[in-house]
Amino acid sequence: MSRRIQLSCCRVEKKPRDTVLILVLCSDRIHPPEFFKKKYAVDEVHYVTEISSVLALKKPDVLLTLRGVNTDSGNVSKEASFEGISQFNVNNKILHPEIAECRVIKTDMELEVLRYTNKVSSEAHKEVMKAVKAGMKEYEMESLFQHYCYARGGMRHTSYTCICGSGENSSVLHYGHAGAPNDRTIQDGDLCLFDMGGEYYCYGSDITCTFPANGKFTPDQRAIYEAVLKSSRAVMKAVKPGVAWPDMHRLADRVHLEELTKIGILKGNVDDMVKVHLGAIFMPHGLGHLLGIDVHDVGGYPEGVERIDLPGLRSLRTARSLEQGMVLTIEPGIYFIDHLLDQALHDPAQSCFINNDVLQRFRGFGGVRIEDDIAVTATGMELLTCVPRTVEEIEAFMAEGQSSAKSFDRLSSQKQ
């Protein structure tokens, strides 16, 4: 009987009976092998220095090492190597796609951790919404989010660099990087688009809340926000096993175009707008992505699933059909990005649908994104994120936060 040995630092859910999985374990102190056998529920434990001799005794026909490309980031996983590996028949092509598929479908235990990351991150977002006010720096909100996640949830790391865009910065999709490190002063009347997620034991969350810094939406802010919320809820209602993710992106796009027409920014037939990909001008990113051990998790484009080379759709981080156990983000958005708007106005096929007089009112508006994490169930989806979402909920929640802050300030002044 042939034997395959897998050399990896990841957990594999299912493996053939004649396959041995080698886990490289790290610890802060030197424990005996029995400690690790009990902790990780494995059959054998040996010290790393023995790896070559132990494997030689098992006489494997092939040694599988983990090497492959993350189809989302383009990063290549670094395969294991050790002194003496050259004596084995090594295959570094089989294991990566299998591991990636294991990560796409979450176990019940993994879902419990992801529920936790969402619970803590949702509460941290709510703390930010209660605390924000004009005159603060964007990075103060980033700091408060990180502090809450760590102090209250034991989440030392965030899943990605926090995006804390206010005013026009809310239209910059990956704002918050080293070149623009959340350092703008928040102004009265700004929309705040805060995209932040905590990480727990490597499992991430990815949540975006958009709200007015002063706690009250203007009519235009409310109109755009409710357009995005409508597309988010339309997608949630449609999600179930077997649904193609690109179709969910198209659904969100269509809702945006319909709502922008009602607002008066667009005019004409929505079907014709769809044909010229007008939706990608206002939502140039994909609807959402797989979530798990990476915030943009592996498995988005396995063999046989191809990218769709069309505006907007080409930015989708997966084009798979949904399956029970998948965890994804749903993150529609409408943004007013001058470069893309000018591009559309110079394209006769798209400019004929744009009411430029009304559009001018939204120049400098920024953007709105609403991002939730969901798990696909047998009949639909489970919403993992829990934050105020409707205009009424947000305004009431922020008013409550401002009232509490004023009461605290009064008490503090009385004590002095």
Largest sheet: 4 strands, parallel
Low-confidence runs: 8-17
Distance between the termini: 81 Å
Strand-pairing-aware structural class: alpha/beta
What is the H-and-E element order?
A: EEHHEEHHHEEEEEHHHHEEHHHEEEH
Mean pLDDT: 92
Helix percent reads 25-40%
- List the strand order in the largest sheet: 2-1-3-4
Q: Provide the gyration radius in Å.
A: 25 Å
How much of the sequence is in beta strands? Answer: 5-15%
Number of strands: 14
Task: Figure out the total of helices.
Answer: 13
* Overall shape: globular
Descriptive labels:
416 residues, alpha/beta, 4-stranded parallel sheet, 3-stranded antiparallel sheet, 13 helices
Overview of this protein structure:
This protein is of the alpha/beta class. The protein has helices at residues 33-40, 51-58, 95-104, 108-131, 138-153, 219-238, 245-263, 270-275, 279-282, 338-345, 348-351, 356-359, 391-415; strands spanning 4-8, 19-23, 62-65, 90-91, 157-158, 163-166, 191-196, 198-199, 207-212, 327-330, 333-335, 367-369, 372-376, 381-383. The N and C termini lie far apart (81 Å).
List the helices and strands and how they pair.
Elements: E1 4-8, E2 19-23, H1 33-40, H2 51-58, E3 62-65, E4 90-91, H3 95-104, H4 108-131, H5 138-153, E5 157-158, E6 163-166, E7 191-196, E8 198-199, E9 207-212, H6 219-238, H7 245-263, H8 270-275, H9 279-282, E10 327-330, E11 333-335, H10 338-345, H11 348-351, H12 356-359, E12 367-369, E13 372-376, E14 381-383, H13 391-415
Parallel strand pairs: 1-2, 1-3, 3-4
Antiparallel strand pairs: 5-8, 6-7, 7-9, 10-13, 11-12, 13-14
Helix pairs in contact: 4-5, 4-13, 6-7
